Amino acid sequence: MSMEKAAAVLRRAQYPLFLSGAGISAESGVPTFRGTRGAKVGGAMEGLAADRGIDGLWNNYRAEDLATPEAFARDPHLVWGWYNWRKRLIASTQPNAAHFAIHRIAQKLPNLLCATQNVDGLHTLAGLESILEMHGNIYRTRCTQCQSLAIIRDDVTPTTQCGNCQSANLRPDIVWFGEQLPRAVLDSIYARLAVCDAILVVGTSGSVYPAAGFAIEVRRREGVVIEINVEDGHKPYAHDIYLRGKAGEILPQIADLV
Fold first, then answer.
1. I need a labelling partner for 187 at 20 to 30 A (CA). Which of 32, 55, 116, 214 fits?
2. How many whole angstroms separate alpha carbon 115 and alpha carbon 17?
3. Which helix (H) or strand (E) holds 201?
4. CATH class for domain 2-30+94-135+180-257?
5. Cα–chain-centroid distance for residue 239?
């Protein structure tokens, strides 16, 4: 009954918003990287790494060692080594049923604005033509000299040249600790939140801001919050629709009903 209700809410919504987090891609086997200060970066990846015969090098580092502008300035070889390793892990995964389901929902609801906290690019690989990547894309580089963006799926090193200006000043187009989220992305999301009457939140803990505040803002405006999560996530309110379980099992059913 809740899935039918969720589908009905989405059909009626004039300004719906979709937000995904690490949980949706975890079902594809994408290693999660929690942005917890002081945490060892290999922790959530070590099981997958061990399965694939990858050594535990990265378990010796904290997030602050690798995911900050200061770390990149200090040792770009180290930081690029870590991102190349993550890229190879993610490249061996594929979109799951949840990724394909949100693509189908977006086709049925042309006014649906889609945003993700993930950097793995699996939504695009599943066919979603437009999605706001709040934290960047692990395959995308940004030239710190000319600011041009490029998708590079192969390994990148500090000597890799920018295809536009030929300088060797590429960095991952990822939002690091201490950096602001892309202004254009946030502006688009906040513009939608100002009128949003339904938000579909999938696979996010609801603990990292600003994304954690999106559902709260929709509630404040008396919109409906639909959440799919294997964990508690946002605590459900009386008018929320909370669906506990795997997104890959629940979202396709909602997509069929929208």
1. 32
2. 8
3. strand 198-202
4. alpha beta
5. 26
